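Many introductory courses stop at the sequence. We go one step further.
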Amino acid sequence: MGSRLLRRLAATLLIAALAASASAQYSGAPFYTQPLLQSQAYGLEVALQRLDALDAAGDTLDDDWEEVVEGFEADLPRFIGTLRAADAARADEVEEAIEDLEEAFASRAGLAEAVEAAREALTEAYAVAVPAEVRADPAFVAALITDLSLGEVGVGEGYEEAIEGELAAFTLGYVALARVTDLWNQIADGATEQQRADVEEMLEFIGTLYPTATIDQAIVGNPEEAEAPVHRMIGVLETIVDAELYPGRDMAALATQLPEQLAGACEAYEAGNDDLGTEIAIAVGYRYLEADLGDFMEFMAPEVHEEAAELIHALTGLGGEDDDEGEADDAAADGAVEESQEPADLAQACRELMEALQDARGVFGG
């Protein structure tokens, strides 16, 4: 095993050990009660984050940024079906704006204008796809902060990948931190004086790791340096908003929830609503891969994990890449996306994934 998988596995097992003794109970659990909505909002946030990163990079853009632009192909399926059902014209505008942006990036002509047009289209789409009352909910905001801090293009991952030579990832982390700070300011009034001081201390420290928007060479440092204060910040946020923000803290509960959440995807596929089916499958698959459950299953029940990971990739494009050392699903756990062969029968593939996730639940005695 490579060092990254070993670090993540160690963290996974630690979380599993601590979960049994965790005494804190929260009244909210946005990743359980509104998983699709959180996934849709996250897709919109990351798409906007990519635009901010392109703006921040300015004239330093090179071919390494192609992966950042290609990432829009993963962001849009998180929400475009719901957007199309609510406002087909708006969905068309988003898709056209992203296509124009991709062409502008390829030609390096009119990129600034294309970025601004895409930002306008996505901002309007956000207002349609995510109701204003939801966007004002502190638990929803805190869950977004969590995903933007720990996700595959988030604050912690951006710094870690910059140490590995992924320079564009640093800029993505930089703009993610700016957005996390903005979101924090939206809910800070609900914090006590001490809680506010604690969160802002963590944000200030992380800011020292991201002193500039761009870098021209790999960072030398501890790859976990940004992630540790992020975790401390999220722990404080849980108390502030009275909500569980670590869906993987109780992996048995997560393993129980995921098949129930996936049922809607299978129903949508069977009804011919493939866009909605894929949105739900992405929400479920991302949480399986990202919230420690996938790592735990790879260790405890590798055959079950392999089946689940392959089906998630087939339905959503999430995961499926091996790293240089041949570690299956290491990149999958980071939410990486590559070209996948779409199953001929999406409903059947969804039912097979349901069975795999039920087998995963069985590992916990469910």
